[in-house]
Each structure stands twice: as structure tokens, then as C-alpha cells.
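Dear all,

This email documents one entry for the complex benchmark we are building for the journal club exercise. For each entry we list the sequence lines for every component of the assembly. Then comes the predicted three-dimensional structure of the complex as a C-alpha cell string, followed by one or two observations. Please use this as the template for your own entries, and keep the labels exactly as they appear.
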Amino acid sequence: MQETIKHIVADVMEVPISSLNDDSSPDSIAAWDSLKHMNLVLALEQHFSITFSEEQIAEMMNLQLILLTVQALAAGH
Amino acid sequence: MLLSSCTFSEIAKSLQSADLAALPVLRIAILRNIMLEPLVTYLRYAAWQLGLNAQVSVGEFDTIMQEALAASPTLYDHDTAVILLFQHLEGISWDLARNFNALSEERVQAEVERVSNQCSQIIHALRGNSSAMIVWHGFLPPIDPALGIFDDQTSHGQGSTVHRLNQTVRQTISTVANAYYIDMGRLMARVGAKHFFDARNWHLWRAPFTLAAYAEIVQEECKYIRARVGKNKKCLVLDCDNTLWGGIVGEEGVAGIKLGLVAPGSVYRELQQQILELYHRGIILALCSKNNEESVFEVLDQHPECVLKRQHLSAWRINWQDKPSNIRELANELNIGLDSMVFMDDSPFEIELVRQALPEVAVIHFTRERLYQIRQLLASSGLFDTLTVSQEDRSRGRMLRAEAERRQLQSASTDLNSYYHSMAMQLVIRFADANSVARVAQLTQKTNQFNLTTRRYSDADIHQFVQADDSEVIHVQLLDKFGDFGIVGVCILKHAPEQTVIDTFLLSCRALSRGVEDVLLLQALRLAKMRGATRVSGVFYPTRKNSQTEFFYPRSGFDAAPPLDSEQARHFVFSLDKELPQAPPFFAAIVSDIDAL
């Protein structure tokens, strides 16, 4: 799942996968603006059949947090 | 590939690896008063599928008027080919969208005028500033109109008001060159309102739509783009058996095929009707079928429920030649490009063959799973859509047919061996046994087209042949990369001193034109030789349906011989002292009981 999420982030942000690490965030990835964040949220929700809360959407602002949030939702928490 | 069948992440992934730089650029500008960023990704993907590199620039949120009126617009220039306009009702008139019941009739009318004037101003300003194709997305009708069930009862309700507003804008657009109107209500109906809107996205981002909605919207926009860049299709090439009707006319006869008012015949009748709708707007129809021409025209001319008639066809190739060659001939005869043709067939083999040999031809695969969806699939493809439909379009089919009749035919060939090779075809030749007797008998009873003697046998008859010392039954099973066809061919041999007689030689129509018959015959000749024969005798008994086998024996190296019992029958002999013919080179594997003897 970790790799899948990383790939989705890379594809949506249109950056090479090699440029991403756990700390990647809007601060380190220039393409990661609020619009791309919306695309990312919708892509992850569709891919994993999950729905983020408003708080989660606002908080998951780096790869590590996205990973934890998706894992928690996919596990049903 | 339908956009709606791919996820957003799959599309983003494909785009990452696409070599867009090599493709012609299509500049698209989007003016909007909502957020719709995911649409850009769908749009670039769909353009790539059309062979175009879409470069999309999106205007700032709610700046439609400014961008349209700008003296030196930054969003679009003279290279821009398409301008997409998204004017959401909530953004331009909150009153009409959400505060409707608070308005007096006069106030509603004034608001409709204000909004339609503003839309007209935008469209005219854009037309003055740019020569791009303008695509306007109409206002969405209210899902739950303001006056509840009474809304439908009055012409002053919210539903009627939005409809009136759309009509006014459409009227304006019809007077502006190269400007088009998309009925967003219809797109929403296709997807369903519940799956079209996402209220959370609206509140968080002012993005009213779901990913499914973006996919549907882009699918529709692409019909305009396809027509604009001249990639729309002009000709539909149709297979016959199991495409225009259910079943195989060569086997089941005109009365036996499925075509009519009840299922499953109704599927084919309604598909034919849909095909005629294309014909009447100028799409050229052609047939490409492995069949006897007379059988096909017997259906078209005589079947009472066959709505597609001979006069609707501009050209046809009904023969046993491979379909890519036939389609190439049709393109030449009709004087159209291969890239303007769509080929529809039920056979994965034919679809794959055409896809490989003629990649510029679009294909529609009529699979069993799509039986009930096929009419809809054809109707919604947009492949043939044009920006206008003229009187000339409506008579094009007749004109072309007359022209075609004057032209000489050309034949072309394709590198069939390499295609056959790619199919990974395998043959298994076995002696019939208790497990296969029933299937062999069934094949003798059902097979009409590739059947040299058309002798019908029961299970008991076949059992007798298997048991007897002076006769043998061999059969061939075909497998390819699409699956297992089971037993498709049968040969029954009767041995006498010196001579072996081929009593029965047949091949199911599912396995025609693949060289299977050549291998089966070669195996029969080898077997006869092993049994001590010096010659093999074969007979062709003509029937109404087996004309394709008339020259099978002479083509395979047999010599004409004096007639036997019947005057119509043609008798051939293969002398076993000469070299046996070579097996076709393209089979991946041939496993044979006879080679193992």
C-alpha cells in the first residue's frame, strides 16, 4: 500500500517517484499546491474507496501523514 | 477506451509515461466560475488517445467576464484551438439557483434577462477575440426544484426558468460561428445526479462535480474535438453472423437465425435500427463477412425482421479472404482512408487481426458480455459525430454506392503468416474415442459450410466407424491465445486394399481460414500411407452451402479423377507415391496421435 500511495502522489503531482520521501510536502514539492492537493484527495478516495474528513484533508500535508491516514481509513478506523 | 472505466490515478499514471512531445499540440483554454482541476487531467488523457498533445490553460476562479473581454487576453491567443466555458448557475445567479422562491415573477424575468445578456456578451466577446472553437456548457437543471412537485405544473417554476435560460443562450450560440452548446443536463442524466455532484467538494473547494462527472464531461467534449480536428469516422464495416443477427446463417439458414421482436433476436434488430440511424445521417455502411454472399443477401432481402437492407450498403466483401485485405479493398473502393473506418465484429480473432494489421481502423468488439449493451455502446461512442449534418450527408450512402459500382476492385495482401504465428495456435489431433463420439456426431449433423460430403451421422454411426477394422475417425482440437475451441474438425477414413477413401471431411465455421483444414488433411494422408494405401480418394458433393470447399482437394495437391456414383459429385485422388504437402508453418504446436504411431 505504501508503494501504491507513493506512486499515486508522484503521478498526480507529475513528479518522478524518486523525488519523493516520507517528508515530501507542499514545502518540498513545488507542484503540490492546493489544487493538486484536491486532485490527490480525490484520486486516493477513488482508488481506495475511502472518504477523508475535512480535518484529515487539511492535516495530511506530507507523504508520511497521507500514508498513515489512508492506512487507518482502509483498515476501517 | 471509455474514460469512465479508468480511475483518476490510472489516467494520471498513463499520462506520466506518455510521449506527448511527439504529438501535434492542441491548445485548450478553460474559463470557469467553479473549481474543476481534475478535468484537465482527463482532458489531456483523452486528447492523447486522439493522438494530440493537449496544452490546457485554466483561467482564475470566476474570471470568465474579465478573460472574455480582456483587450490582451493571457489565457488564449490565436493558437488556441478550443475554449471551454463553464458557467455554473450558482456563481452567476445565486437567486435563480438557490433563492428562487423569494423572487417575484418580474424579478425572475429580469434575472433571466440579465444572465442571458451577460452570457451573450461573453460569447460574442470571445468570438471577437479568438477564432477557437467555443464550447459552452449549459446550466444544469435543478434536481429538486424550488417549488417541489408544483414546479413541474407551472411554466414559472425553477425548472422551466433554467430551461428558458438555456434556450436563450443556445439561440445566441446558434448565431455565432464555430460555437457549440453542450446540454449538461443530459450528461448528468447519463451519470445520475447522485454520482455527478459532490456536496463536500463544493463546500471545501467550490468544486461541484465528482470524478465520474469530469470523465463524462470530457468524453462529450472529445466528440467535439474529434469532429473539429477531422478525426471523426465515416464508415462502419460490419460482420454479419452474430453481429447483425444471432447465429450463423450458413449453418442455421435464414429461418434459423435470431433476428426479430423477441430476445435475443430483438438485440440484433435494435442494433440494426441504430446502424440505420447512422446511415441516415451520412455514415457509410459496408459488410465484411466470411460467408456465402447469397446467404447474407437472402437475409437482407427476405428476412421480414431485417431492417438493414441491401440498398443501405455502399460496398461489401463477403468471401473467405482475410478481413484486413477485405477492409483495405473496401477503403480503396469507397475512396476513404482506413483511419475513417470502424470495424465491428463478434470474433476476438478477427478483431485482433484487424487491430494488428490495420491499427488506424477503430474496432468495436461485440462480445457476448456486451450483448444487451451493444446498441447503447454504438450510440454513445461519438466516433461518427460531426458538427453539422447536411442534406448531402443524408444521401451520401446512395451516392457512394453508385460510385463504388463503377470502380475496379483491387486486392491486397497482408503478412498473414506472422499474424497467425502471433495467435499461438495449437492443434491436437486424436483418434475418436468414447469421450469424443458425441461431439463428432454433432459436428457431422451441424456443419454445412466447410463440409465436403455433408453426410449426417448419429452417435451410433460414429461408434461403428471407431470400432470397425476398416475405418478410422480422427478429429482436431484448436487452441489459441484466446482460449480452447474444443474439437473443430473431423475426418472419417475408410480403408480398402490399395486405396483409402475420405468419407467425411469437415471443419466447424468457428475455425475457418486458419490452416486447420490443411493440417487435418495432411494427417489423414499420413495415416492412409501408414495403413498401406497407395492413393487417397476424396469427393466433393456440392450443396447450397459448401461452395467454399469446391476447390479444397485440387488446391491441396489432389488430381481430378473419373466421376464415381453421382454426376454432381467431383472426385479427386491423391497419389501417395508423391511427396506429401507441407504443414502450414505458423502453428505453435501440433500434437498428433498419428505422428506417435
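Observations: Chain B has three domains: 3-228, 235-414, 420-592. Chain B is about 40% helix and 20% strand.
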